[in-house]
Amino acid sequence: MRGSREATTVRRWWGLVVWAPLPAHASFLSGDAMDTAADVMSWVVIIIGPVILISGFWMLHILPEKIAEKRHHPQLEAIKMLCLLSLFFGGLLWPLAWLWAYSKPTLYKMAYGHDRVPPPHGSEPAADDDSALAVRPGPAPEGLTPDEHGEPH
């Protein structure tokens, strides 16, 4: 019986040793290296982080403008203004600008006969662009008068 009592006592002592507090090391850095790392992280959080967040916020808010520009939307200037106003109203108007950039202006088509603005002077339309906007007359056939091939006088 004596052997089991000694074993129990040894187990109790080992239990106390295991639960004894040990010195804690929170970082692999120490001294000046820890201070330098904290300084670098503070600069990143205070300077670089907000610059990245503000530029990302800006890029997100001009996205409807870029979409409308790519799609040759006839109300591009109004969409640009709505994107700018959305910045001042905390982004509440941004979903409207997004929907407007993807919409087809049916009343504009009824008034002007097409729902896209022709590309600016001197630039070629994109390959996926409707060629109905830009009428490119080919060479006039031989022997036809301007009235016969549709040219103005």
Overall helicity:
40-55%
Secondary-structure-based class equals: mainly alpha
Low-confidence stretches: 131-137
Encode the helix/strand succession as letters.
HHHHHH
The number of distinct β-strands equals 0
What integer value in Å does the Rg equal?
36 Å
Q: What share of the residues does DSSP label as strand, in percent? A: under 5%
Can you tell me the overall shape?
elongated
Estimate the mean pLDDT confidence.
Answer: 77
The main β sheet shows up as: none
- Terminus-to-terminus distance: 126 Å
**Helix segment count?**
6
Protein name: DUF3302 domain-containing protein
Keywords: Membrane, Transmembrane, Transmembrane helix
Overview of the structural elements:
The protein is 55% helix and 0% strand. It is mainly alpha-helical and 153 residues long. It has a domain at 31-104. The longest helix has 30 residues, at 32-61. The chain starts with a helix and ends in a 41-residue tail after the last helix. The model is unreliable at 131-137 (pLDDT under 50).
